[in-house]
Amino acid sequence: MTRRFDPIVLWQIAVGVLLLAGWEAVGRLSGGAWTSRPTLIAAKLAVWLHGTLYIHVATTLTEVVTGLLAGATLGVLAGLLLGRAPIAAGILRPIVVAFYSVPLVALAPLFIMFFGLDMLPKIVLVTLVVFFLLFFNTFAGASSVDQDLIAQVELMGSTRREMFQKVVAPACMAWIIGGIKTALPYALVAATTGEMLAARRGLGFLLSDAASQFDMTSLYAALFILMLLGLAVSEMAAWGERHMLRWRHAAG
Amino acid sequence: MPRGDLAPKISLAGVGKTFVTRDREVEALQPIDLAILDHEFVALVGPSGCGKSTILNLIAGLLQPSGGVVSYDGMAVSELNRQVGYMTQKDTLLPWRTAADNIRIALELKCRAVPRAEAAARVAQMIDLVGLTGFERHYPAELSGGMRKRVALARTLIYEPETLLMDEPFGALDAQLKLLMLDQLQELTRQRRMTVVFVTHDLGEAITLADRVVVFSARPGRIRTVRSVDLPRPRDVFRIRFTEDFSHLHEALWDELQDEVARGTDV
User: Fold this and answer.
1) Alpha-carbon distances of A228 from A188, A192, A207, A225, B256, rounded to whole Å
2) Residue among A144, A145, A154, A156 with most chain B CBs within 10 A, to mutate
3) ipTM of the complex
């Protein structure tokens, strides 16, 4: 697919520039105690880029990616198995629902007590958040696989395992990828929240550290980095979805 | 007379099926007796909703009868019957696999363990046979209804099950293509000596292919008549319908079918 240049992009850039200029003007006129100014923020970012920014970004990303991998793996496996085992699912249902009813970030203080100040409590928190989202999505997918597709492959002589590999898992792929797309922003929220509560590194730490010193410029700069990270993460998810679900878009 | 004089490959003894819906019972099939011999090609014809598909589902073990016994090779069918290949009326291609990958799936299973190169060769041969060259890498959503039927046919034929259950396999095909497919099907099932149970609403198709034609009554289904087709084989599917024997059979069977079609609800 080739994308032609769209004039609307020019307008989008113009609006963006206008907003930044407005912010800059307000900042200069009011002294900028609360609003800071884009030029100051940019200067701050430049300083960070030559300094410690890397370690904070790396910390947050490591927590997100590790938690995502662990949570998604466990969630998908549990969803696939329970999705095809209605009796076990019925028994476990109230327990899962009860756990999920606790606002998960509220568990952050508990994990910090258990696992200390470094990355581990944040990874556990991200894992838990991702696990539930992936579990529910995969479960819904696995329990709604077309029974006729399963029967067809079973008649050909598939083992139970082959039926899982060749029918249930691929049929759930759209659900799993949808789950990962939903889970990505939540993973970022969980990691940052954990860092804001207690940490020595990470973007959440950067944020709460700036706030505690009333350093508005650093606060906005940290938010800006988080925004970029959020954008990158959701773009990656969209890209992954397009490539893994080619058959879905085949008709279009 | 049907070929062979062995014990039946498939037998239905007093087999009936009643479906229970929320507030009432629907009798899809009245108790029937039917024996299908080894290597026999039997066509089931009748108006829509007469329980023809139910019979295939019972033989495949996808349904259990409400009464009577379905047996295969002398054993009661109590679970999925893996001796049969079943081409259902409903489209059951895997939407995330290309045409070629769909056709290959049975060869990937451990119970066959066909080496990769051999599987590829057989898939190519099947694709050629059903006339889908050039569409190997298309997904089901990109194929027409008739093409999807042909993929399903190739997928079922490729692993050469000893018994073939087919539910209106050629309904969606145009007339010329249908004849080509009938020809291929006759050739393959004769070569591999398959037992075939073939559901259709096209009487001509039934007479062209079958050793015996079973005519069903409108719902609740029961057997109205069974006729042997004594036309010599191999049959020329393109011209057989212009022979005198064919017309006589067609006329006789149509007389039977006509009343039932008239009584069928959806005609």
Assistant:
1) 12, 14, 15, 5, 75
2) A156
3) 0.86
